[in-house]
UniProtKB/TrEMBL annotation:
UniProt organism field: Stutzerimonas marianensis
InterPro entries according to UniProt: FliE
Any one Gene Ontology cellular component term annotated for this protein: bacterial-type flagellum basal body
Gene assigned in the entry: fliE
Keyword rRNA processing annotated: no
Protein name in UniProt: Flagellar hook-basal body complex protein FliE
Length: 106
């Protein structure tokens, strides 16, 4: 139950962040926009990294016999895998968008 509550709290926090950003000015200065985007992407990378370390620790604990929670370790591993795949897709979309903007005629 706590993991469901945690996910709900994270989603609520994201919704509040989006609501706050929607109330601001429509166009931000370039320096401020890139700082925000870079910070968000770095935060996402840190979150994915933390999930991968947690999954690795859980798998190591099961491998060494310190833990009997094989199902939990596999779930953590799948969560980390899905998070990494999602981050990779976002990176690919950003790269494609950047390439498209660079190819635009002036």
């Amino acid at each position: 139950m706590s993991s469901i509550t945690q996910v709900q709290q994270e989603l609520l926090g994201r919704m509040q962040q989006l609501a706050e950003s929607a109330t601001g000015p429509a166009i931000k200065p370039a320096s401020q926009a890139t700082d925000d985007a870079g910070g968000l992407f770095m935060a996402a990378m840190r979150s994915v990294d933390a999930q991968q370390h947690q999954a690795g620790a859980a798998m190591a604990a099961v491998d060494s016999g310190k833990s009997d929670d094989l199902v939990g370790a596999m779930i953590d591993s799948q969560k980390a895998s899905v998070s990494f795949s999602a981050l990779l897709q976002v990176r690919n979309k950003l790269t494609t968008a950047f390439d498209d903007v660079m190819r635009m005629p002036l």
